[in-house]
Amino acid sequence: MDHVDRILAQWQAERPDLQLRPMGLLGRIKRLGAHLGQGMERVFAAHGLNAASFDVLATLRRSGAPYALTPSQLMDWTMVTSGTMTNRLDRLEAKGLIRRVRSDRDARSVTVQLTDEGFALIDACVTEHVANQHRLADALSETEQAELDRLLSKWLAGFEPPED
Amino acid sequence: MDHVDRILAQWQAERPDLQLRPMGLLGRIKRLGAHLGQGMERVFAAHGLNAASFDVLATLRRSGAPYALTPSQLMDWTMVTSGTMTNRLDRLEAKGLIRRVRSDRDARSVTVQLTDEGFALIDACVTEHVANQHRLADALSETEQAELDRLLSKWLAGFEPPED
DNA sequence: GCCTTTTATCTTGACGTCAAGGTATTTCAA
DNA sequence: TTGAAATACCTTGACGTCAAGATAAAAGGC
Fold first, then answer.
1. Minimum-distance residue to D24 (CA–C1')
2. What is the pLDDT of residues A88-116, one digit of tens each?
3. What are the structural domains, with CATH classification, of chain A?
4. What is the pLDDT of residue B20?
5. How far is CA A99 from CA A49, A69, A93, A106, A115, in A?
6. Distances in whole angstroms, Cα of residue A85 to Cα of each of A30, A99, A111, B75
């Protein structure tokens, strides 16, 4: 009898006409996502970051040398709007973690590049982040994690058709 | 090869020292949660609500007659801070969906009650919401949904120790 | 060469959230 | 009885987000 079960029991009593089966599943995904998010934010915060700024720096870092992408590419990877990305980049630039370089070939275009400070910070942060993810997933065995990943991949494929 | 796989492949190339196994799992939970959240928001929006306002009205509705709880009880159920709840209640009150009643017994306390309009709205909305949840979960068979729910419950139990 | 359309990014305004703190009230131990 | 602590709710200020639209530049049809 967890939090989600209590919610389902209330609905069952008040609206016995409803077919509640998927509600528990969706509720658990949402709550688990919230707990995992909080668990990850702690590591980000220890490095002066949050999920938003980590997301940008990590995307640049894993893109490989020269650790530079355009705002549009970053928007594609992180799935946020242009206004959100402008705001994120403004803050990261103010902290000296990225730098905006105007393109020579296209005056509309900007390249966002990790500074040395940004590179060092994200490299240290992601190392801790990965270790933290291991801790967060430890409640399940490797077999269970693999089975869960299989089911989530199948579900996710309906929203994000795989390519290649 | 989905979006998460592409991220993992980039990390693998750039940081082969990292043990990336749990990263895919956590990434898929996050992305799936985002897609499901968007899918649910559409139904809320069709009734002039969003996830936040739906959450409050649904909590009041499923609490049973007289469909009234204090802000503190609502905070416990919805897991938001007091400032957030005040803001939510202000907006719902302005729309005439809830009403605040000062307590006779404790002058600090307030009872938040569904109005007739609020009751009618949330009852209609939750009916559609449940049908929508079925659609969103349709990508998995009933067996798969049950297995997924089992694994998520186990994982979630580490964050929210079950009671009773 | 021009004019429309598309592309790339930034700006604005509204909203939801939280942390920290404020105010009023109640509780409880001395 | 009274004064400190706890409780219940609200206020404030900062932040992250989005939708809509602004600006500027490039591309393409004629």
1. A108
2. 999 999 999 999 999 888 888 999 999 99
3. 49-137 (1.10.10.10)
4. 92
5. 17, 11, 6, 17, 6
6. 25, 14, 13, 32
Q: Closest nucleotide (CA of A53 to C1')?
A: D16
Looking at chain B, the whole-number percentage of residues with pLDDT higher than 90 is 87
Q: What's the average model confidence in pLDDT over B27-35?
A: 92
Dmax of chain A from CA atoms?
Answer: 66
Q: Is A21 on the interface with B (CB under 8 A)?
A: yes
Kindly compute the dihedral angle of the four CA atoms of residues B21, B26, B32, B38, in this order, to the nearest 10 degrees: -150
DSSP, residue by residue, A17-53: TS--HHHHHHHHHHHHHHHHHHHHHHHHHHTT--HHH
For chain A, say whether B81 makes contact (Cβ under 8 Å).
no
